[in-house]
Amino acid sequence: MRFTTVRLVLLYLFCCAFAGSPDCMGQQQREPSEQMHFSAEDSSVKKPVPIPESVLANLRSDDTVRRALEDQTTSPKDLPSSWFLASKIHLSNTNRPDLILIGQPPISGANVTTFWVFLAEIGGYKLVLTAPAHDLIVKKLVGKELTISNLHL
User: Fold this and answer.
1) Which residues of 94-106 are buried (b: 16+ CB within 10 A; e: fewer)?
2) What local confidence, expressed as pLDDT, does residue 2 receive?
3) Is the dihedral of CA 132, 136, 142, 146 positive or negative?
């Protein structure tokens, strides 16, 4: 009897794993409250946020941004915030929201853009990732930590 029960549970788990449904108990899957997928082909974010001045100051020293400023004959102090989209996201267990920025023209290309990830710290933000890619996908790991993966170059 015990062996049969174990086999049924294993069969059930196997079916759930390969059925394509993330929740095999029949509950509704909830939409994440924060955007987790960003793409060079989508020139919008679901819940845009303003870009803090401290983040813009950090971007002024980025090589990609500096080249675009030179190409556009724009002074770094006049860096347009319209060159970026920002979305807040909680990448760690802190109460402070982190930021993901997506480059817009003239920083983005036809099928690629640059993504910047800033972690919130006391007194500002710290740049932790700069990546030219097609997509940036944030995935939840087991537990409460998040990871950034699937950078499609």
Assistant:
1) eeeebbbbbbbee
2) 45
3) positive
Residue among 35, 56, 38, 36 nearest 108 (CA): 38
CA distance linking residue 65 with residue 107, whole number of Å: 7
Q: Which two tokens stand for residue 72?
A: 């556009």
Strands 146-149 and 135-140: antiparallel
Q: What's the distance, Cα to Cα, between the start and end of the chain in Å?
A: 53
The percent of residues above 90 in pLDDT, for the chain, comes to: 50
pLDDT tens readout for residues 84-97 = 999 999 887 668 88
Strand partners, 117: 100, 129
